[in-house]
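Field reference: sequence -> structure
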Amino acid sequence: AMLRSLGSLLCLWALRLPLPPAGTVAATRGLDVASYRERVRAMFYHAYEHYLESAFPYDELRPLTCDGQDTWGSFSLTLIDALDTLLILGNVSEFQRVVTVLQEGVDFDIDVNASVFETNIRVVGGLLSAHLLSKKAGVEVEAGWPCSGPLLRMAEEAARKLLPAFQTPTGMPYGTVNLLHGVNTGETPVTCTAGIGTFIVEFATLSHLTGDPVFEDVARKALKALWKNRSDIGLVGNHIDVLTAKWVAQDAGIGAGVDSYFEYLVKGAILLQDEELMSMFLEYNKAIKNYTKFDDWYLWVQMYKGTVSMPVFQSLEAYWPGLQSLIGDIDNAMRTFLNYYTVWKQFGGLPEFYNIPQGYTVDKREGYPLRPELIESAMYLYRATRDPTLLELGRDAVESIEKISKVDCGFATIKDLRDHRLDNRMESFFLAETVKYLYLLFDPDNFIHNDGSVFDVVITPYGECVLNAGGYVFNTEAHPIDPAALHCCRKRKEEQWEVEDLMREFYSLKKTKKFTLKRASNHGEGESAKTPEDASSEKGGEKRNSKKSSHSLLSCPSQSFNSKLAVLGQVFLDNS
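Structure field:
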């Protein structure tokens, strides 16, 4: 079963409609992709180096005063959030240094009230991603990796601090927990929908790597509680009482307070090959189209009646076209994306709220804190379509952020897009998400975009397994999770599998083909840098674990899904 799941994940990336080379379509609009990629790299280091100089070990940089502040719990949060971005940019030496710094300096046994949601997506997600990328970054991993390791233990420790929040009659978690004492007496039981339904990616990954099912169990129970409490017309509200399951805020939409719940149903389905999660999302999607969609915009409606309550577009909703691409709904995704892009071009960024009928910002919601969501959607859609309009959004984002937001000590939140006043904050997601998605938009050959033809074989206590084959699932903070890793640490004998089975499938499919085993190409600092693993292989002539062939050789076995899921945005029906 695990072999079939891995095979389907790999082939979902490998099978796609023929697309013109990225450089070809970019050239048709005169956009220099390589130049913008290097400008994004420079943006990252301008922000990152000033965080290290002026703000570390605080959570975030205050770029106008060149100092730091703790925001989400005193975790050196920007350093954790930026870690996997370092590797995507090719900086293996700094990745290795930061891993050591985090092991020595981060302590979760502190008397701090922390957001359960934010700690999960930023800290647990960031540490899990960095753990799974450690070997690729040349970190000397311990025996048993990826089923053990210091970053995995840190992620598990952080997640265990969150578990008391889930001890409610409904299984839906409190929004805040004290990392030393658990849930405070008198803590409000009202939590937003996203704060309940955004755990399955990180917590299922933790359960699969550690063998402890408690994390996935609580995440699933919370998801199902929301599903159980949807309205008769199939919608969920914005905030709910986790003790009584009574909806406190009954506005239904795809934006703030709800957004990543829908995102995690889709990404959880992809990560876990879980039909139930996808079925839940598809039912929600029908209700969302029926009641909230108007002319390719999505409004806010009353969850029980479906009547419009707020005719506004929120910048957080800009993730939706990217999510649509994951289920293959490309046409609708592009139409909605183009609506959102017109707002960007009107202001040079996305205001937090935009009144659709009036075509202008909403009072006290005119700011743009350098959010990534529209860029995220552009990255996904560009992988699916190669439409040069998506590169143009990336270009506009680079130009706007540099012109409006760049200051001597980093990049500042834009307090008001109308007059470009700035605020003294640089959120950690700027380095975790915004810069990362921009870079991946302009770097079509990045290892993150691997189509499954390159992979690594690693030895675990439970046998051999395949990693780094592509199909990465980004959590809602843009931390990539390797789905193949979830099959490396199975402790039940009947679920163990061996890479020899995979190789036998390779050779049985294409007996007449000759296979050339080559070391995988890697991306380092600049165009030609190599990871330490490359160098050691070249010097010592060791047995190489990275394998590459000129063709994608995995078949897609029949799945129980009516439509197979594809990160690249294409849908492959069972009879295709």
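Note: Residues 311-449 form one domain.
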